[in-house]
Amino acid sequence: MVDNVFDAKEKLLSTLSWKENPFVKDLRQSDKEGFLTYYYAIDAGKVVEKLAFDAKACLLLGPKGVGKTSALHYISYSLPEGEFDKVMFKEPPETLNALADELGFNRITGISFIPFLSSKRDVTRQELARYLRNKYNIKKLLMLVDEAQLGTEMYMEFKYLLDEVANLRIVFSALDKSKFPDSLLHLIGSGNIFSRNKFTKGEMTSIIEHRISAVGGKAPAPFGEKELSKILTEQNLLSPRYVFDELNNHLAKLALGEEKIEPYGDDLVIQSAIQRSKQSPQLTDYAFTTSHAPWWQMLSPSQKAVIAQLVSGDGLTLHDLMDKTSLTQNTVFNALYQLRGDDEAERERKPEVPFPLVMAKQQFVGKRKKNLYFNNNKIKNVLTTH
Question: Which pTM value belongs to this model?
Answer without folding.
Answer: 0.65
